[in-house]
UniProtKB/TrEMBL annotation, chain B:
InterPro entries, alphabetized: Redoxin (IPR013740), Thioredoxin-like_sf (IPR036249), Thioredoxin_domain (IPR013766), Thioredoxin_ResA/DsbE_sf (IPR050553)
Keyword Signal tagged: yes
Sequence ranges assigned to domain Thioredoxin in this UniProt record: 20-159
GO molecular-function terms, A-Z: oxidoreductase activity
Organism from which the protein derives: Candidatus Muproteobacteria bacterium RIFCSPHIGHO2_01_FULL_65_16
Annotated keywords: Signal
The protein, known as: Thioredoxin domain-containing protein
Length: 74, 160, 418
């Protein structure tokens, strides 16, 4: 019952996310997305340096890419 | 007819460019250019290389010199190159054209209406239309490696 | 050992790998205007007030070697100087220690003991970004990093698959690192009394395997989002050979002895990372959140926001705020009680304690020409924890057992295309 309820709740949510929340942006409408400032990592060196800093100063690292700076020796 | 089209669709979906004759009629359109209006139907009897491009598209920069070259080589044999710019802001297109001059027709489709009719899948996209107004070849993207193939397709359509 | 410890080249690889994941779906078309070469360079100065200073120049060269195919190489140098906590807590008397190289150093009463150190690191990495199919890209990397007592060798591979008319990108990546720790004068036996500890040898190994699964999705014309799950498994020598733990009297709280720290020999870590890029009419917001948890008992939240505010002529200013909070590792102890049974593992490294980091910064960027970009940023970072934990005993109550760490971050970057 609980499972069925969950599915009943999740299905519309999933389709909402897939169907409505995400627009089918046409190839000719991707001008803004093509800009370098819209990239997920617009400044890779800065991200690298920040990873380095926080890797050395905190017990967490990584998450954004493979090997995200972590080595567990912190 | 169904099967080839299905194949074409599948092939397009899989990302193969330059698919064999698909023989869909090329949807007609009228679009403004710098000097007037271009109507596709008025080019019936010519072989048309129709190219959709945008100023923010990398490979488009490489396709322009090549299209100039194709025009130079084949215009007198009946090839017409029509390009459709899909930039929202025409100024961006004009700035691009200053850097990459075009010896061919540039039409403006800022709302992407014609691009939508042609179900353009990527930037740039090109369509080779035969003298009878049928789309015979489609290409998504522009790659150095595909140049020779497209050129031979152009030649095959120009052949008497 | 602050910034010094073990930032093997992995970071380099990570950043570059990220750059790949970061390519927005459908944006394989979008290449920068210009020639075959991309050069990115930066100089970072990280300076903690009264502690460590790191000067780090780096350069990344990327060359287009084919259609949509790139080869890049990165060189990073690190010069680290200053003082780093040795793990012992402040107490009511001066404390004297012997450094790994045999020198004596003293911490005044009431101050957290800091050990002077100096080290350099050189890291190189290479990366090959190759289209495998019209919708599939591969990114292959290798890395090498060395400092006086630490070396790291790594390799990584990642696949990015564009689906859904390039509105969605699925990513899967693997990385493996083989590190070697060579403590100056050998690795001490964990939890042994410092004065009499024997060393357990050199060339200790540490291996790490990372896995990443990610989805990047175009939400609409102005919005891009990414969700990643990652898992990392490390095994081998994960202890810091230079860190010690104060042993205090159970009644007076006075420090009576020191023992070397000891950490488990494996660590498994999971993280969920979410990012959103949103474009206003001109400005851009970058928002990210990470939840991370591991089998050491550390769980952390990281939230990060950058707002790129466009100025005239292609310049911009970008305020940045970052918030980080972690729970302590299960074996974290600010000190151990004399005579009590020793735990299996213990570390007083503040970076394994309950900790909050707040960073605020400002970046200014400008482009003197179409193919060159400059930027400069200044950030201030503040870390704080439990200064006066409830389990402090006797004289410990008068001490700050977790002093704040404050640092300035300065960076200048230049990138150009040829």
């Amino acid at each position: 019952m609980c499972m069925r309820l969950r599915i009943a709740l999740l299905l519309p949510l999933a389709s909402l996310i897939a169907g409505c929340a995400f627009e089918r942006v046409a190839p000719w409408d991707r001008d803004l997305l093509a800009e370098s400032k819209m990239q997920l990592i617009p400044d890779p060196l800065e991200s690298y340096l920040d990873e380095h800093i926080y890797f050395s100063k905190e017990a967490s690292s990584g998450g954004q890419g493979v090997g995200g700076g972590g080595c567990g020796c912190n | 007819m169904v099967i080839p089209r299905l194949l074409v669709t599948t092939a397009l979906a899989l990302g193969f460019a330059g698919v064999a004759p698909a023989a869909d009629p090329a949807p007609d359109f009228s679009l403004p250019t710098a000097t007037g209006v271009i109507k596709l139907q008025s080019l019936r009897g010519k072989t048309v290389y129709l190219d959709f491009w945008a100023s923010w598209c990398g490979p488009c920069r490489k396709s322009f010199p090549w299209m100039n070259e194709m025009r130079r080589r084949y215009a007198d044999r009946g090839l017409v190159i029509v390009t459709v710019n899909v930039d929202k802001d025409r100024k961006l297109a004009d700035r691009f054209l200053e850097e990459y001059p075009a010896d061919f027709t540039v039409a403006y489709d800022p709302e992407g209406k014609v691009a939508s009719t042609y179900k353009v899948k990527g930037m740039p996209s090109s369509y080779l239309i035969d003298r009878a107004g049928y789309i015979r070849y489609r290409h998504i993207g522009f790659r150095e490696a595909a140049k020779a193939e497209i050129e031979s397709q152009i030649e095959s359509l120009l052949a008497p | 050992m602050q910034l010094k410890r073990h930032q093997p080249i992995r970071g380099a690889l990570a950043a570059a790998t990220c750059a790949l994941v970061s390519a927005a779906p459908g944006m394989a078309w979008a290449v920068e205007a210009g020639g075959d070469w991309n050069v990115d360079s930066a100089l970072l100065v990280y300076s903690e007030i009264d502690r460590v200073t790191v000067v780090e120049p780096l350069v990344n060269m990327k060359k287009q070697i084919g259609e949509d195919e790139y080869l890049s190489g990165k060189l990073v140098l690190d010069a680290m100087t200053g003082a780093s906590p040795n793990g012992a807590t402040a107490t009511n008397r001066p404390q004297t220690f012997t450094s790994p190289s045999g020198n004596l150093y003293t911490a005044p009463a009431g101050e957290t003991p800091l050990r002077d150190f100096r080290d350099q690191r050189v890291a190189v990495s290479g990366e090959w970004d190759k289209p495998l199919d019209r919708m599939l890209r591969g990114l292959f990397g290798a890395s090498l990093s060395g400092e006086t007592d630490y070396t790291s060798v790594g390799a990584s591979a990642q696949l990015n698959w564009d689906v859904n008319d390039r509105l969605t990108t699925l990513s899967a990546g693997l990385a493996y690192y083989a590190d070697t720790v060579n403590p100056e004068s050998g690795a001490p036996v964990g939890l042994a009394t410092v004065a009499t500890a024997t060393t357990g040898g050199n060339a200790l190994s540490k291996d790490t395997a990372d896995l990443l699964l990610g989805v990047t999705q175009v939400v609409n014309r102005r919005t891009l989002t990414q969700l990643n799950y990652s898992h990392s498994a490390a095994s081998g020598y994960l202890t810091d050979p230079y860190k010690i733990v104060s042993i205090v009297d159970g009644t007076t709280g006075e420090t009576v002895d020191y023992r070397y720290e000891k950490r488990p020999d494996s660590r498994a870590r999971d993280a969920v990372f979410w990012k959103l890029v949103y474009r206003l009419p001109e400005d851009v917001i970058h928002l990210s959140y990470r939840y991370l948890w591991d089998d050491w008992g550390v769980a952390s939240h990281t939230a990060d926001i950058k707002y790129r505010y466009e100025l005239d002529g292609g310049a911009y200013v970008q305020p940045h705020l970052r918030y980080y909070a972690q729970t302590a590792a299960d074996f974290y102890r600010h000190s151990l009680i004399n005579g009590a049974a020793l735990p299996e593992h213990a570390s007083a490294d503040y970076r394994l304690g309950d900790l909050t980091t707040i960073t605020a910064g400002l970046k200014y960027g400008w482009s003197p020409t179409k193919r060159a970009n400059w930027s400069a940023r200044v950030e201030y970072m503040l870390q704080s924890g439990e200064s006066h934990p409830s389990d402090a005993i006797g004289v410990q109550k008068d001490q700050n057992l977790f002093p704040d760490v404050a640092a300035w971050i300065l960076q200048v970057s230049y990138s150009a295309q040829f």
